[in-house]
Write a structure and sequence with these properties.
Blueprint lengths: L2 H16 L10 H12 L9 H5 L5 H8 L9 H18 L5 H17 L31 H17 L1 H6 L1 H9 L2 H10 L2 E11 L2 E13 L2 E6 L4 E5 L3 E13 L2 E9 L1 H8 L3 E9 L4 E5 L2 E5 L1 E4 L2 E2 L2 E4 L3 H44 L5 H19 L8 H15 L7 E8 L7
Helix pairs in contact: 1-2, 1-6, 1-7, 2-6, 5-6, 9-10, 12-13, 12-14
Length: 433
């Protein structure tokens, strides 16, 4: 078989079998390059082969051809396992997270297999036995390397298989299999066997309302699943709903669950702790006042709070009126500070523009005509006067910060509730897919 078919066949063969281990050879340029190289590697013993020609400067193709001949030592199981062991050895030491050993075994074996389908076959047991191995046994069903017409048919066949298998390469074999069914049971199977976060496209009917979209899978059981949608809402889909589809997809972000313990923190710190986290489990207790909280529409009031599978849960402290008033004042102060900071930022831009304008006039002053210089001097005086007398809105920010600090101290005074407990949450990508 010629080089183009070994490349096409090796890519398809390696891509399909690697997908069983969720390895996409197209996800990394080094993977596809290695696949092509390994698929051509056995023909390094032929100086006029694709790889032999590229590596002719090394003298290795000529040496192998003169001393062993074509389709001998490089087409044997001995070379297959020795090279495989060497690649595995170096990969384990240098880059244990990669999959080059797997790519070698599939790509190299594809070359041997396709050459076995030719009339001459390959001597797999070389140098112990030089008898060729062939598939199939009847030579009438094997093809000849010199037959360009057969080679063309085979190349087209490989290209067609490649196009058909693109979803398989992208998602992996088992994910592709589970996507074909799109059921809760198959989503659970994919979730149980995956180390990555899963994105799922959903379509189901609940209380007569059709709901479609996609989101990140927080948790799946055989009878229900919890999905964090793009709108930062956690929805629950159970086997009691009419499910049209649940199509999983890997986003290549390791699933990491983190634990956080906290002791005697105030209400604001509690809200900060829970904010913007994909909560799997949260259990904590209030020291004094009960909390009102809502989990996916379920409203509760308790001093012992248990939250599961939620994002930014609603929490409201049953505090007295004074505390509520203090909180209102704190919010107002925060708004005032934010507004003044925004104004100050805009004022700094304006001041920068004035300074830039003055600098431009100064830079051009020597090249101006006398009449222009007189006008420039007037403009510079006006600009410098504005710059010298420029005032910022934020001159009393320090006073607002002190007032805010005083209110916070007052809020944390006597008998105010503190919270202790544990939080388990899912680490999400920086940008939710």
């Amino acid at each position: 078989m010629r080089g183009p078919n070994h490349i096409a066949g090796g890519v398809v063969y390696t891509g399909v079998f690697s997908s069983f281990w969720d390895v996409n050879i197209f996800s990394n340029p080094w993977y596809i390059s290695a696949t092509i190289f390994f698929a051509l590697l056995p023909d390094i013993d032929h100086p006029r082969s694709t790889l032999g020609g590229l590596l002719a400067f090394t003298k290795l193709p000529k040496y192998l051809d003169v001393n062993y001949g074509h389709r001998t030592i490089t087409h044997s199981l001995l070379a297959y396992f020795v090279l495989g062991f060497l690649i595995y050895f170096f990969e384990t030491i240098l880059s244990p997270e990669t999959h080059f050993t797997m790519l070698f075994f599939f790509a190299f074996s594809s070359h041997l297999l396709f050459d076995m389908m030719t009339v001459s076959g390959v001597p797999l047991l070389y140098p112990w036995k030089k008898n060729p191995f062939v598939v199939p046994g009847n030579p009438d069903y094997r093809f000849r390397t010199a037959d360009l017409k057969s080679e063309a048919y085979i190349f087209v066949a490989f290209c067609c298989v490649f196009l058909f298998c693109i979803p398989l390469f992208k998602n992996g074999f088992w994910t592709t299999y589970n996507r074909q069914f799109g059921t809760l049971n198959h989503l659970f199977r994919e979730y149980s066997e995956s180390e990555d976060l899963l994105k799922v496209e959903y379509d189901f009917l609940e209380h007569g309302e059709q709901k479609t979209g996609n989101g990140i899978v927080l948790h799946v059981e055989p009878t229900k699943c919890f999905i964090l949608t793009k709108d930062s809402i956690v929805i629950e889909i159970s086997d009691k709903t009419k499910i049209e589809k649940l199509l999983p997809e890997h986003i290549h972000h390791k699933r990491r669950e983190k634990e956080k313990f906290f002791l005697n923190i105030d209400y604001d710190s509690l809200r900060t702790t829970l904010r913007s986290k994909a909560i799997l489990e949260a259990e904590f207790q209030s020291s004094t006042a009960p909390l009102e909280y809502t989990v996916r529409g379920d409203f509760k009031t308790s001093k012992v709070i248990k939250i599961g599978y939620d994002y930014n849960p609603f929490l409201e402290l049953n505090a007295d009126t004074n505390h509520a008033e203090i909180r209102r004042k704190i919010e107002i102060k925060n708004i005032e500070i934010a507004e003044i900071q925004a104004e100050e930022k805009e004022e700094k831009r304006d001041l920068y523009k004035l300074k830039t304008k003055a600098q431009r006039i100064e830079n051009r002053f020597d090249s101006m005509k006398l009449s222009e210089q007189e006008n420039a001097v007037k403009d510079l005086k006006k600009l410098r006067l504005k710059i010298d007398n420029y005032t910022f809105s934020g001159h009393h920010l320090q006073k607002l910060f002190k007032q805010l600090e005083h209110l916070k101290q007052k809020l944390n005074e006597d008998n105010f509730s503190t919270f202790s407990g544990k939080l388990v949450y899912l680490e999400l990508p920086k940008e939710k897919p």
